[in-house]
Amino acid sequence: MEDDDNQEFDSGSADSSNTTPIAANEACKKGLYMAMKGRPVKIVDISTSKTGKHGHAKMHITAIDIFNGKKYEELVPTSHNVPVPIVERNDYTLVTIGDDGFLTLMSADNETREDLKLPEGELADQIRSSYDEANRSGKQVSLTVYKAMGIEQVMQQKIID
């Protein structure tokens, strides 16, 4: 076979997938993550209907978006697969808050990053307040960052000694 017959294909890395399919009856439990309408959500309520004359048992799932708090609802046959997002949680020490709103963060292995913006709303006010307090008292601010489905955002903060 000649080299001209070989075709090149684009390939992604092994971790390029945002979700993994899991059977609905295994993945859909209160407190677990699921993907709905392209967003990572945390399941808050589930009700299951019995098998009907013409179909499968169905689950009515109510969930809250982990990044913006929006409520989602979906009806899923228990025999089908549902997409489950790969959610990563990392803790960083806050080094500085830039004038442009970007945060300088340091990981546990002393790697710095400056690509995350200060979140909006009440959490941003809490982070600024904690940062000012920590600078006065010689303490540090720890930020928890969640990453799922191509979205990365600061979700929690606390002052540490």
From TrEMBL:
The keyword Cell membrane belongs to this UniProt entry's keyword annotation: no
Transmembrane helix recorded as keyword: no
GO molecular function: translation initiation factor activity
Transmembrane spans: none
UniProt-annotated stretches for the region Disordered: 1-22
This protein's UniProt keywords: Hypusine, Initiation factor, Protein biosynthesis
InterPro entries listed in its UniProt record: IF5A-like, IF5A-like_N, IF5A_C, NA-bd_OB-fold, Rib_uL2_dom2, Trans_elong_IF5A_hypusine_site, Translation_prot_SH3-like_sf
Annotated Translation initiation factor 5A C-terminal domain residues: 86-158
Bias-annotated ranges (Polar residues): 9-22
Modification(s) after translation: eIF-5A seems to be the only eukaryotic protein to have a hypusine residue which is a post-translational modification of a lysine by the addition of a butylamino group.
Function field: Translation factor that promotes translation elongation and termination, particularly upon ribosome stalling at specific amino acid sequence contexts. Binds between the exit (E) and peptidyl (P) site of the ribosome and promotes rescue of stalled ribosome: specifically required for efficient translation of polyproline-containing peptides as well as other motifs that stall the ribosome. Acts as ribosome quality control (RQC) cofactor by joining the RQC complex to facilitate peptidyl transfer during CAT tailing step.
Classification via NCBIfam families: eIF_5A
Family designation: Belongs to the eIF-5A family.
Name of the protein described by the UniProt record: Eukaryotic translation initiation factor 5A
Organism the protein comes from: Paratrimastix pyriformis
